[in-house]
Amino acid sequence: MATKSEIVTAFAPCRIAFAGGGTDLPAYAERYGGAVLSAAVSLGARVRVRPLDIRTVALILDDFEIRADYGDPAEILNDPRAEVSLVGRTLAELRPAGGVEITVRTGLPPGSGLGASGAVGVAVAYALHVFAGRRPAKEEVAEAASVIEIEKLGRPIGRQDQYAAAFGGLNYFRFDGDGVSHEPVNFPASKRRDFERHFMLFFSGRRRDSAEVLTGQRARVAAGDRQTVEALHRMKELAGEMRAAVTEADWPRFGEHMQQAWLAKREVSARVADEKTAATCARARELGAWAVKVTGAGAGGFYLVMAPPPAQDGVATYLEGEGFKRYDFGFDYDGVRALDDEV
Fold this sequence. Notes:
Blueprint: E1 8-19, H1 26-32, E2 34-52, E3 57-61, E4 66-70, H2 82-94, E5 99-105, H3 116-131, H4 138-152, H5 160-167, E6 170-176, E7 179-184, H6 189-196, E8 199-203, H7 210-222, H8 226-247, H9 251-268, H10 275-286, E9 291-294, E10 302-306, H11 309-321, E11 325-327, E12 337-339
Parallel strand pairs: 3-5
Antiparallel strand pairs: 1-2, 1-12, 2-5, 2-6, 3-4, 6-7, 8-10, 8-11, 9-10
Helix pairs in contact: 2-3, 3-4, 3-5, 4-5, 8-9
């Protein structure tokens, strides 16, 4: 049986994107160049790799209540379940030696808009590398996980989730045909704490299929749809303006830009926010929030609220009264890493 020292546990954080999400999709980024301002958060993916005495693969996906056994990693590619595809493809690509049991857990509702699949891909890849005795560079893991999701699995996404999960922290990412550039936004620890306490995160209880939203966006960008492209240009511009607001510790200005970025995102697709979503966001702002947005591709999932601390109780009471569940979180500045504890 495996000893504790042979077991590898890795963690990769999810992310909240403040502005620019969608400009990282290849259809836009390779033509115009994209930019995203995002922060990694303490919510994320834990992956445990445990050696087995027999040459088999046991896959445990806690979020989906799935347990499956395979004679060889390559067999996972024949599993028709969409929930298995990301971990299965990563396993098949990296092919661990001998038998392994892999357990994956995020503790988050699937399709919630925090980039959980990107965090899972990064955490699985990193854990398998460490299990094989390697300590890969964070950029290497981010790029490998991106290639698996975008090129191998054909998902209509960009690279922001994987890079945020790998690097951690508050970052300004640029995306173009040459790759990804990573520019950390650094400011004093005291300012960090003050910045973080302006944010709240709530789960709406509504899950969404981001692929539908992003597939439509990709098609409109490829067709040169003016409204879509101009909205994405504005979101990219706001990502840069928000970075400047952070470095100047101007939180109200950051909130104003964050709200503008959300309104621009709603111009990208009518599916991003229905009438109920728009009304909920508007009421939260009436109660004192500076900005309210749906995370990820929109259309449900988590709502990110930026509000001055004196207004937060009122906003939280309203959203919880509407059936929303608040999630406590902090920012994560370490990115993907191996842990001493198990899943």
